[in-house]
Amino acid sequence: MTPAYDDTLRDAPTETFQFHLKKTDGKARLGTITMPRGTIRTPAFMPVGTVGTVKAMYLDQVRDLGADIILGNTYHLMLRPGPERVARLGGLHELIRWPHPILTDSGGFQVMSLSSLRKLDERGVTFKSHIDGREHHMSPERSIEIQGLLDSDIQMQLDECVALPAEPREIQRAMEMSLRWAERCKVAFGDQPGKAMFGIVQGGDIEALRVKSAEGLKALDLKGYAVGGLAVGEPQEVMLRMLDATLPVLPTEKPRYLMGVGTPDDILKSVACGIDMFDCVMPTRSGRHGLAFTRRGKVNIRNARHAEDKRPLDEESSCPASRDYSRAYLHHLVRANEALGGMLLSWHNLAYYQELMQGIRKAIAEGRFADFMAETQEMWAKGDIDPV
Amino acid sequence: MTPAYDDTLRDAPTETFQFHLKKTDGKARLGTITMPRGTIRTPAFMPVGTVGTVKAMYLDQVRDLGADIILGNTYHLMLRPGPERVARLGGLHELIRWPHPILTDSGGFQVMSLSSLRKLDERGVTFKSHIDGREHHMSPERSIEIQGLLDSDIQMQLDECVALPAEPREIQRAMEMSLRWAERCKVAFGDQPGKAMFGIVQGGDIEALRVKSAEGLKALDLKGYAVGGLAVGEPQEVMLRMLDATLPVLPTEKPRYLMGVGTPDDILKSVACGIDMFDCVMPTRSGRHGLAFTRRGKVNIRNARHAEDKRPLDEESSCPASRDYSRAYLHHLVRANEALGGMLLSWHNLAYYQELMQGIRKAIAEGRFADFMAETQEMWAKGDIDPV
C-alpha cells in the first residue's frame, strides 16, 4: 500500500536536473523536478517576478503560499539592472533573496511586444529599449549568456513568437527559425548538469506545424519542452487543440511548460492535456486592478455591491489576505488606488492559484482528477456568495 | 531604587483617557497616555494612515515596529469611504484592522491644502472634493461628528491654519476664530471619558499670538493640546521659538502634540522643548521616493553609488527591510519604480522613526536626554558609510 499523498513534502534536491513522473491520471501528470536549488512539485504554477520582484509581494509571502519556483523576465532584467551587474551582485537569487529555483524566459517575447524599431533575422533581434530607447541586440547565444549571468536554473531558448492571426507561410518561417535557434541555444548552454535549457514549440494555430516543431525539438533531446505562442488572444479551444496535437509528440519523461497561461480554467484544462508547468502575470496584475480569483469564480472588488460587505473574500482560506480583510476594506483600498489594495489582492490571488495547484496535485495522486476538475468548475459556475 | 526603564512594557489600558507624566529631563518629558483601546508611550511618533492605510505597509508591520497609535485623515476619510459608511462598517478600527488607538485630525488642514473653491467663515468651511468636485461643508460640529463616526480615540478641533508668511492681522483673525471653534468643538464632543478632544494652538510665527492662543485653550481645560500651523515651510528655528513661547503656557499635566512634524532632527529638538506626540508623512512618503532615514543621516538610495552595493541600509537594525536587503536591490527597485521599493523603504523608515522614539524615551528615563541628542546628531553628521 502506498502512503497517502502529502503535498507539503518536497522531495530532496538533487545535484542534477531531473524530472520524475510519479503518476498519471488520464493525461494529467503528477511529478517533481529536482535540482540543486530545490524541488518543484508539478503541475506547478510559477509566479512572475518580472524585474526581480513579484509585484507588490514580499518573496517570503510567495514562498509561504507554496511556490517552488518563480519566473524572471530576461528582457526586463537585461535592461535593468543589467545581466553583468546582476552577476557581479552574486546572481539573481542572491539579489532578490530567493534561494529556490528560478526560470527565466529568453526575452524574445517581450522584445517583440514591448520594444520598438526591432529588426529580426537569422542572427537574432535588434531592438530599442522601451525605457530609454537604447539599442540592444539579442542572438540565441546572447540570450543564453544573459540567462547564465542571471544564474537562472531553467533557461529558455530564444524563439520567434508570431502574433495570430498570421499567414501560414509566416508561421512556418518563424517556427523553423525557432528550431534552428533552439539548436544554437543548446550549443550555447552546453553541459550544465544542475540546470536545464528548454526548447519552445511554435507553429501558431496550425497543428501540422506544431507537430513538426515538437518533432524537431524532441530530436534535440532537451531537458524540457515549453509550448509557446499560445494564450495570445486565440480562443481557449484553439489552445487546447494545439496542446492535444503537440503533447503526444513530446517525450513523456520530460517536463512540459505552457508559457504565459493563464486563467484558473486554462490551467485546469491544460493539466488535463498533460501540462506540468505554468506561469502567468494574471494573479498579480488582476489583483492590482481589483479582480480576485476565488473558489466561486471571479470577483470584481470594485463593484458597488462590496462597498459595505464586511465578509472576507473567502473565509475558508488560510491566507490572511483572503480571510481576514473585509470586502468593504478591499473595495475602499482599490477605489482609493492605495498600494495595500494591490498588495492584498495579489496575495489573495497567488494564494488561490497555489491552492488550485495543490488541489490538482492531490487529485491526480488520488486518481480523481476528472472529478476534481468537474467540482472545481461547478464551484466557479455557482458564482460569488449572495450580496449582503 | 526604581527598576530600570523597559520600553517594551506598556502600562495597562484604562477606562478613561489619562496622561501620566512619569519623568522629565530638562524640558523633555517621558509619559504614557492610557485609554480603553491601549496605551501610548510618549514621546510618541504616530505613523500616518491617510485614507485608512499606512501607505504600502501591512498594519501588523506598523504595530510590530512599536507604533502605539496611528493617525487617520478626516478629510480623506470623509470623502472616501465616507464617515457614515465607516460607522456602518463598525468604525475605522474594525475596517482597517487596527484595534489600538487612532488619532484623527479635524480635516481643516487638508481642506485648505487640497480642495478647491472653498469658502471659509465663522460657521465653517465649504469646499469641493479634489476627487470628484462634489461640494462639502464642514463646521466645527460636523468635524467632531465625523471623527465620532470614525470612532476616533483622539479627536482634533477644527482650526484655521494660515499659510506663512501672512499679515499679523490675518494670523490673529484666524487664531481667534480657531479659539472660538475650539469651544464649539468641546461642546460638540461633550462628555466621552474614554476619548479625548485636543485643542490646537495657532498664531503663526508671532509669539504673542501663540501665547494668547495657548492661554485661551488652557482656559477651556481640554484633555490635550496640539501646536498647529508649524512645519509649513518656515525655518526650524522659528518653529522651535514658537514652541518655547507656547509650551510654558500649557498645563504640564496634559499631553502636547506637534502636528505634522517632522524630520528626525525636528523631533529630537521638539522633544527637548517638551513635545510628547508627533505625526508626519515623511517616513512613508520619502520612502516611496527612495529616501531613507538612518542612524547615519539621510541616504538617497537612487544615487548611483548604491547600484552595486551589497550591504544593507543598516546591518545593526532589527528590521528586515533595513538589515536583510542590499542597497543594490533597493536601488534597483526604486529606479524601476517597483512597489516593493516603496514597501521596503517605508518599512525601513518607520522602523528608524520608532527606534529613534525608543531611544528618546529610554534616554529621558535615564536622565541623559541631552547626551542622547548630541550622540544622535553626531552620528547623523558623520554621514553614510563609505562607498564600496
Automatic annotation (TrEMBL), chains A, B:
Coiled coil: none annotated. It comes from the Bacteria. Residues 260-266, 284-288 are annotated as: RNA binding. GO terms for molecular function: tRNA-guanosine(34) queuine transglycosylase activity. Its EC number is 2.4.2.29. It catalyses: 7-aminomethyl-7-carbaguanine + guanosine(34) in tRNA = 7-aminomethyl-7-carbaguanosine(34) in tRNA + guanine. Keywords: Glycosyltransferase, Queuosine biosynthesis, Transferase, tRNA processing. InterPro entries: ArchSynthase1/Queuine_TRR, TGT, TGT-like_sf, tRNA_ribo_trans-like. Belongs to the queuine tRNA-ribosyltransferase family. Homodimer. Within each dimer, one monomer is responsible for RNA recognition and catalysis, while the other monomer binds to the replacement base PreQ1. This is Queuine tRNA-ribosyltransferase. It comes from Gellertiella hungarica.
